[in-house]
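User: Structure tokens for this complex, please. No commentary.
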Amino acid sequence: MKTLSYEFSPPKISCNIFINPELFLSDLLIGYLKKFSSKICIITDLNIKNLYGDKLLHHLRHHKLETFLQTIIPGEESKSRHSKAKLEDFLTSNHFEKDSCLIALGGGVVSDLTGFLASTYLRSIPYISIPTTLLSAVDAAIGGKTAVNTVHGKNLIGAFHHPLSVFIDPDLILSSPLQELKNGLAEVFKYSLIFDLDFFNKLNSIKTLSDLNNELIVSIVEKSLQIKTEIIKKDPFDQNLRKILNFGHSLGHALETASNHRLSHGQAVVLGILSESFLSKELGFLTYNEFLQIYKAFENLAMIPTIPNDVQKNDLVNALLKDKKNRHGKIGVVILKSIGKTIGYPYTELFSLEQLETCIDYLLENFQECPFELSID
Ligand SMILES: NC(=O)c1ccc[n+]([C@@H]2O[C@H](COP(=O)([O-])OP(=O)(O)OC[C@H]3O[C@@H](n4cnc5c(N)ncnc54)[C@H](O)[C@@H]3O)[C@@H](O)[C@H]2O)c1
Ligand SMILES: [Zn+2]
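Assistant:
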């Protein structure tokens, strides 16, 4: 069993992370829940309910834990104030109290929503996470950033609320669709690019996604979380160093919003990383050869998506202007100094829209679907 943890104070926060096959229905989880929780609500989406949610519900009830299960519709649209309000009503009408506990069973949509729900219900109750996608295991479920989207943009309403613990079972992750593995690898590559050249080289040695097995997933998740927890410990509230975790996300979030979530978070992050690496090269930090290595890494694993052809330059501009990291109308972007290193304090550079135009043009010229249907008559 691999274990990691982070803690800091004030306020006193501690989070334990367990990584092991067969954790999902383990005694460890039962023992953990029995220690502190009177009432439990598993929050999951409809896909995961059928695959794992019902099994977990029966397992906990079998061990005499008073457990409920609530579902959301799969997809980013469910990360909303509306879903949160419905769940709040369910918890209230079923008399969930301060020592009740939520379990986020699912991908990043479920963990972001559940974490935010737990942060405000009765002014905060505990929650634990059981990630079922690689993306949530290496990123969304850990670190305490919780949020919902609004029509104005991604993650605009949220709070910091850390899970008490995270149970990562590689069996669940490996059973997810291929595209979900690619989405998670986008964040994994992000860690390597901002922090660790050796890790980038190790990831580059993966020739095909069918190489991914339990052992490799455990080691990728462990390495990614070592990097993430080290950064969180130094900057729990996103005031300085933690900003480097946003590498690829300024343009990435804009693409997600501008495409109306037809590009998933992970797909948008791949393109965000490519365009922000392109910018780092244009600014004279990254060499052309390094930029090419990054591009090839994604190309080799068939991770580069296309941008839907109705996404216009203006849509990206509008989405960029609504990013919550903006300051005085300027857009913050993390710049790579080399593979494995970002520029130092203040960790993000502020750019005007005009300065980011090369990035936007790079994206639309190279990755947009062909605007016309080709027909061969
Ligand atoms: N809080 C953070 O720090 C943070 C970090 C990164 C991403 N995020 C957020 O995470 C979200 C994206 O998360 P995601 O990529 O996990 O997407 P997701 O939660 O939407 O899951 C993707 C799809 O895969 C399905 N699925 C999940 N696990 C499965 C499994 N084991 N088998 C079969 N199907 C499965 C889900 O039902 C869903 O349809 C975004 O909203 C993003 O903003 C948050
Ligand atoms: Zn992300």
